[in-house]
Every structure is written in C-alpha cells, then in structure tokens.
Amino acid sequence: MADFETPELKEYPVIPLLHEGTxxxxxxxxxxxxxxxxxxxxxxxxxxxxxxxxxxxxxLTGKYRSFQVFLDSCVKCGAxxxxxxYYLGTSDPKNMPVARQDLLRKVYRRxxxxxxxxxxxxxxxxxxxxxxxxxxxxxxxxxxxCRRCSVFCPYGIDTAEISMAAREIxxxxxxxQKYCNEIIGKVFKIGNNLGLPQPALADTLEGIExxxxxxxxxxxRYPLDEKGADVLLVTPSADFFAEPHVDGLxxxxxxxxxxxxxxxxxxxxSEAANFGMFIGSYENMRNVSLRIREAxxxxxxxxxxxxxxxxxxxxxxxFLNTLAGPFDxxxxxxxxxxxxxxxxxxxxxxxxxxxxxxxxxxMVLTYHDxxxxxxxSRMGPKPGGQFTIPRDVIRATCNHFFDMPQDTIYESTYxxxxxxxxxxxxxxELRVKGALPRMEALKQVVEQNGVxxxxxxxxxxxxxxxxxxxxxxxxxxxxxxxxxLVSNAIVLxxxx
Length: 496
Ligand code: SF4
Ligand code: SF4
Description:
It is a single chain. By secondary structure, the chain is mainly alpha-helical. The chain has 21 helices and seven strands. It has helices spanning 33-37, 49-63, 65-73, 85-90, 97-112, 114-118, 130-139, 148-152, 159-173, 178-189, 198-216, 245-259, 282-299, 310-324, 340-349, 371-376, 385-397, 428-434, 436-449, 459-468, 482-489; strands at 231-234, 263-264, 303-306, 338-339, 365-367, 453-456, 479-481. The chain has a four-stranded parallel β-sheet with strand order 2-1-3-4. The chain has a three-stranded parallel β-sheet with strand order 5-6-7, with helices on both faces. Helix 2 (49-63) crosses helix 3 (65-73), helix 12 (245-259) crosses helix 21 and helix 15 (340-349) packs across helix 17 (385-397).
C-alpha cells in the first residue's frame, strides 16, 4: 500500500523511543514561481535570502508580540515533548514541539539576543545556513498548527504561531509550499480551493436538488447566487461533491428548508477554507476573507453562516471582523458569523425540527473534536459550546453515541494528522503516522463500545480520515459529517 510502515495500533498509547532524523526526508513539494508570485512572494530562493529571512523575522517579532514572547520564554521544562501527534507517530525528536520551536529559536538567539551574538555556543544559537533552512522546510511542514502542545505548556507557548511565522519567513525568501500556495491562487482566480467555476457549482447543486427530491419526495432547494436571501452560507468546497462532505451539505439544506429561511451560497465566496492562515500570511488571509464580505454585500444578505470546516471556523470566529469588517450591514440580532451547528442546535432546542433518531440506528457513533474548533475558537453563547453543541446535535440525531478517552477529546483532542496545510499526497507518510493517536483512541471505543462510525465537523478531518482509516484497518466510510446524521434523521415537512 505504501513505501513506509504504518505504525502498529497499541492498546494503550506508548511514548516512543527517539529515532533521530526518521522524518528528515519528509518535505512537501516547493511551489513553482508562478504560484509564489501570484501571492506576492518571490518566485524562487532569492540571492540574499539570509538577510531577507532575518529582516522578516525582525519584522514579525515587532509585529506580533506573542511571537517574540514565545521565542524568549521557553524554560525547557519538557511538558510539551510527548504531546504532539507527529512525535508520537514518527518518534522523530524534531517533532517534539520544543525541538520544533528551537529550530527557529536558535537562529533568533544568534541574531537578536546579546548572549547569542557573543556566546552562541553557550546558549545553543546557530547561524542561518542552507542546512537550517532545509530543516525548517521539513519540520515546519510537520506541524499541523493544532495547538495541542500549547494546552500543556505552563507558559502557553503556541508552536502553531511559531510554525506560521516560519512559513511566512520561508515564503518571503521564495521557498513556499506548493499545496497551500497553489490553492490560495485558485481561490483568488475562481473562488474556491477546488477551482470549481460557477457553471460547475450550479450544475452540482441542481443534481443535489434532484437527488434529494428522488430520495425524500420533497423539493429542498440548494440555491446559488440568489440576491435578497436572508442567509449566506459559506462552506468548504469539498462539500459540493466529496464523500462524506456532500451528505453534510444535503443536511444543511434540509435544516434551512425546515426552518423556512431563505438562503443562498455564493460562487464568489464558494470556499470557507482560508489557507492564508496556514502560511502565516495576514495579507492572503485577508484577501480570501474579503470575498465573503463582497459576496454578502452583493447578495444583500442579513446573516452569514459557516458550514462544517475547522480552520475556516477559526478564521471566521476569531478574525473575520478584523480582516474584513465591520459587518454593520448584517442583522445584529445574530452572531456574525454563526456556525451551522449553532443554527441547527438552536432549532433543536426550540423544538423546531422533528428528528427520528432511529434513522441512524445502523451506526454506533463517536465524535472527533477538530483541533481548530476545540482550541482556537468557540461556538454559541456559553464557554465550551464548541464541545457541547456538536455532541448535543449528535445525541439528538442518533441513539448510540460514545466518547473516546477523555485525554484525546475536548481541548486535549488530537489533530487528524492532515491539518495546517498538510493534506497533500506528498506528505502521506506524515499524515498516516500523525493519525496514530486518534486511531488508537478510536480503536478503544470500537473494541469497548462497538463504535462503527466517527463524526466530524471539519472538511480536512473528513478528507484525512477517509484516506488514512484504511491504513489502520478501518473502512474509509466510517467517517461521517455531523449534518449527515441530521440529514438522515430529519423528518421533512412535519412542522409545516
Ligand atoms: S501545534 Fe500541534 S502539530 Fe504543531 S507542534 Fe504543537 S502539537 Fe505538534
Ligand atoms: S512546555 Fe513550554 S516551556 Fe516547557 S519545553 Fe515545552 S514550550 Fe518550553
């Protein structure tokens, strides 16, 4: 199946012995000049790259206070060392969060601290060389920016921010990652990661309408670019056709239908994902976000609702207003933006949906908390809503639900292994190995509770699991969308 060995699933997680350099070969393809230049970066490694990189590092430490604090404050306590799924899955010591940070910190010390300038060996400071740059490229593309390590660090040091900064520095010298940068370019040109133009989207949605009508006998609409609708739904483009994502989109439409609310999707903002965050580029993140604002203004909607996507929700919840606001033209009665789960949850709480749980009786479910939702955002009016709302919705739509072990869920959740711009086939070994802790947790509930399916609310998690589950002996269709459960259980027309 692959030219690497899939790790063995253990009954209890084991902290692996160190195997130096086992993942040094793992590097994503470098972006070609045309993909670099369309984002405003140099096409290839610039001549004076060392100086450009150091200038960028200085700019970032000045711009983001947190970045400098993180570089200055690590006390090497070791609390984070066994917390990263990539270390647990690969046993490469440079995948320990503190070691990953140190790749950058050593250079920072050398050029920006007194001790590093005059006594580099004493403080572990190193010169910025091509070997160091190569190590950055390899290991900062082995961090999914999931923030799990930061939960366990007594100083709250966030390796995700350091890895974003490292990628931004690399982009600034002309060494960007193909997968992310090519995708951002597609969003700018066409409106979504997959490069689906308006006619293809319209065609797909028409097909979905026909399928749902054949299946249920009810004409549920999946509108595109409809001016004057109340709600603009912005969802990851994978929802338009990929399994199991599309079953979630079918569910959103059924919920809107039952709520009696007019809604639309937009071909201009046909992508919730925002890979600008993965490469640490404020400008690119902003340009992607502005498309949502433009679409909302053009269509004259009153509300923005985001579909199931982890990092898209992180950007929307945490930064949308700063990046593309103010949204004073929207109805202030509703959260700006709102998550589709908040919307569905509210309807369930108010008894506005009829749900037949037995429709999901062929599944015994567990739930994977997506890292960006769990640790980088919130949902609903109460703290912890990002954990309780999805579980409330799952429990309202099925009879059999079991959580995975406590230290692998909620704020301690493990990344799926494909987040942070790593969901590319050239990183398959890393993705499979990084999924190990989640797979071990899944195995426990499979064996103890007879779990057959895992639900998720992130497009990247769904794609990643569909691909890696078979490596561990599970079937690829054991990953489902939460709104797929809603779609199965919802009784259409019962409240009309
Ligand atoms: S942010 Fe996540 S992927 Fe990155 S070092 Fe920390 S635990 Fe590992
Ligand atoms: S837990 Fe925090 S302070 Fe301790 S080694 Fe890791 S990053 Fe440094």
